Amino acid sequence: MLVFVFLEINNERKPLYAEEFNKCLKSVSTGNGIIVASKEYKALALDKECVLQIPDSIMNDIDNGLVSPENRGLFLCINKNNAIIDWISEILSNKDVTGILLMGRYYDFISAAKKNNVSIYYSEIIDGKTEDITRGVLEKEEDYRNQINSLTNDLHDLREEIKDKNEQIAQFHNRIGSLQEELYNRKNQVKALEEQWEYAEKKVDKIEDEKFLYLKMYKSFLKELDETKVELLNLRKK
User: Mean pLDDT across the stretch 185-200?
Assistant: First the structure.
């Protein structure tokens, strides 16, 4: 929803942008926004609830500093009025308000817009043009909405992609954990096999030692047997 501001007057204290105000009023009447206006513009649409009048106390305070009524807009460009900032901020704080359109670069309204994170638009009239003041802003607003929707969809897709990547990373970490556990088990198995091999080598060495001992004993036995045979033969000869 947009907020349109009208408060500019001529030296006869007549609305300076009456034609533009009426065009805007038709658009806003369909539910596209709110008009904030001084009493000079409010008088053009007394029965319209969409037109909020700026309090006379605020406008009188502004007009008291003017050399001539037509300088009201210029005065708002270079002076600060906390009462305006506070009053318009209450309107702009509405969560449905997305932007404010000004007929000039008015310090207080710009400050309130920035304070409430509301977009600021300037009428093409201040650039010397007299085109419909609402058409361009509404088109820009629609374009911004489309861009936001597109970015929102892109963000959703990106979040889904990140979610998938996180799931893949989690699976990868689980796989690494499984491999680390498997590697640990393999290391234990290798260690057990090494111990069995070492035991087998020691057993083989022991068997080899025993084999040589038995062989030595066998040779000794054969030698004693030969000696015994010789002694028996000698005895028989006698």
Answer: 83
